[in-house]
Amino acid sequence: MAPKSFSGLGNLLSKPLYFKLLITRVFNLAMTFEHRRIALRVQYWGTHFSGFQRQLKQCTVQGALEQALERICGHPVITYGAGRTDTGVHASGQVVHFDTNSPIPIEKWPLIINKKLPTTLIVQQACCVVPPWHARFSATWREYIYTIYNSQLPDLAWHERSWFYYKAPLDETLMAQALGSLLGNHDLFALQLAGSSRPHSKVQIQQVGCHREGAIVYIRVRALSFLYGMMRLLTALVVAVGAGEISVTEFIRIWQMKDREKVHLLAPPGGLSLVDVGYAPKLFE
Length: 285
Hints:
- Strands 1, 2, 3, 4, 5, 6, 7, 8, 9 and 10 form a ten-stranded mixed sheet that branches.
- By secondary structure, the protein is an alpha+beta fold.
- Residues about 20-30 have low confidence and may be disordered.
- About 25% of the residues lie in helices and about 25% in strands.
- The protein has helices at about 5-15, 15-30, 60-75, 110-115, 170-180, 230-240, 250-255; strands spanning about 35-45, 80, 90-100, 120-130, 140-150, 165, 185, 200-215, 215-225, 270-280.
């Protein structure tokens, strides 16, 4: 025989009016949690993902994040990233946002999410933002760094995060001169892979740089946005300058004349990393 309290509850739930009132109260309670937009600063090894953007039957950064967040939030989640990195490209400063009514305190989100993610994908920071703030459309710049290991002998410590370039010593001064010609607003059609859905190839380059630390050569570019494949095409062309295969003058002529036929090589994805995204005001320290 059921206890009296459970028997009484059963009788109430058997009546449609009481059941409707119960569902209404549960729904109202759930709606008392504030709807929030949360931004995340994310790190990942691109070697282990088929790019950032979700794809059917593929392991992607966006897919892994959404799967983890849906398990935590208890409702469908759509994430939006500041940049769509390709297969094999890394990130140390990707920014993603999503909407939720979960009451989890903002400072606890990184620890909770990381427990649900693979070890090659980490959430470093979280903060609340106010709509219409958007990880992609509110960004004022993105910054990529390409890393080249320039030596005759490889180093396994740099194997997954650099391009091992052994053919010739690179002249980083010439490389920096070539990059400097890109500052400003330009049409960089020559530095865009085929298949892009973008309606134009104009880019605003805000900062560039190239320097060497021992065997490591770093190429840094900060821009409002990037063309499809731009950093990898650009890196291969700048390396040709550094190796003495083409002159700085020829480099400038190629991109100014939109001479795509002269841009033959694509630098490997493993040397490229999205290191930071800028917002006003600044989002993360």
